[in-house]
Design brief:
Number of helices: 11
Structural class: alpha/beta
CATH architecture of the largest domain: 3-Layer(aba) Sandwich
Largest sheet: 6 strands, parallel
Strand content: 15-25%
Strand order of the largest sheet: 3-2-1-12-13-14
Shape: globular
Oligomer: single chain
């Protein structure tokens, strides 16, 4: 195994991946990968990761060196197409689905007002789509989930108005999701042993806006509160605490990096594929475009984590990927510390 190290005077940047909607043992629930992000952020100069890792519904942990980056933008950065520019704060616009009931819409407007008053977030405008978005959920035999949006054009029209008229720099979307999803699957998820049925459709929503407009975006599903259940697992409990999942999304978007689509406009402090030193990803979920692109670069070290099992079975050996396989995130911290120090991780073992 060959390792390539950058000068120790340069920043140490880590890409932390946990794919959405694949039943990841860590990161497949309500913000349960946040401890991993916090630990890695303590040794890295910058951590690039996606909302799936950082969103915890009513809970969040804001870290100045963690770049909250939507999955499509993350992949384009990893492929060398786009750059990410850290910011102090963003003007946030919010899109609400016309399909929401009045009481549910009011709950989300109150969450927005609370974020402005309590956290000081700069939320400049709130728009309701001109038609209901019509979210439908799907799942496959592998356990992975996805979804469809019947009126995606309505979503894009609202986003375009926020960008052109209100001059927002990031967009939060709240779409009405079906309450009558697979009850057995929902119960399994609440017990900490099932797939997040909402994640796939959420990705479709945010991907559409980022692909079209190149602006940070994240989604919070609107659902009626579930009946109280004393047996809910700790990993799913963050989603039981209120009427909305919006707070973590607003906090994440408030400092989400700006997306630089024109490479001629990149500045020295922007982060591109050339600036990534290491990738951390589940061992069984290695098919993502960003991972495949960065693994081919000689200066990037990939760390595969076996303990974070997923519903997939796409291993590094199947794809011919190079890297270090570890058992758990404890070992990840040791490997990353060695790489940052310019030490071959293999020299720490007998």
């Amino acid at each position: 195994m060959s390792l390539n190290f950058k000068s120790l005077t340069q920043s140490f940047n880590v890409l932390l991946l946990v794919p959405t909607g694949v039943n990841a043992a860590i990161g497949g629930y309500a913000g349960d990968a946040l401890p991993v992000a916090r630990a890695i952020a303590s040794i890295a100069d910058n951590v690039v990761t996606h909302p799936n890792v950082l969103n915890g519904a009513s809970l969040y942990w804001s870290m100045p060196n963690v770049l909250y980056t939507e999955g499509y933008a993350l992949d384009r950065m990893a492929r060398g197409d786009w750059g990410l520019r850290p910011v102090r704060s963003n003007r946030i616009g919010v899109i609400l689905d016309r399909g929401m009931e009045p009481d549910l819409e009011l709950r989300h407007r109150q969450a927005i007002a609370a974020a402005q008053a309590t956290l000081g977030l700069n939320i400049t405008d709130v728009l309701v789509t001109d038609s209901a978005l019509g979210v439908e959920l799907r799942s496959g035999d592998s356990g992975a989930t996805w979804g469809t949006i019947a009126n995606i054009d309505s979503l894009l029209r609202a986003a375009e108005k926020l960008i052109k008229v209100s001059q927002v720099q990031a967009i939060a979307v709240v779409a009405r999701f079906p309450d009558d999803c697979d009850r057995e699957a929902l119960q399994n998820y609440r017990q900490g042993k099932g797939v997040d049925a909402l994640a796939g459709a959420e990705a479709v929503i945010s991907h559409a806006i980022v692909r079209e407009f190149g602006i940070p975006c994240a989604h919070a599903p609107a659902l009626q509160p579930l009946p109280l259940d004393a047996t809910v697992a700790p990993r799913a409990a963050a989603e039981e605490l209120g009427y909305t999942f919006l707070p973590c999304v607003l906090v994440g978007l408030s400092r989400a990096p700006q997306i630089i689509r024109d490479r001629h406009l990149l500045k020295h402090h922007d982060i591109t594929a050339n600036d990534i030193d290491a990738i951390v990803t589940p061992y069984s979920a290695c098919g993502g475009a960003g991972l495949l692109a960065l693994n081919a670069l000689p200066h990037v070290q990939t760390v595969f984590v076996k303990e974070n099992q997923t519903a997939l079975n796409v291993t590094p050996e199947m794809l011919g990927l190079q890297g270090i396989t570890v058992n758990n995130y404890w070992e990840v911290i040791g490997v990353l510390t060695a790489i940052k120090s310019g030490v071959n991780p293999q020299s720490l073992r007998c």
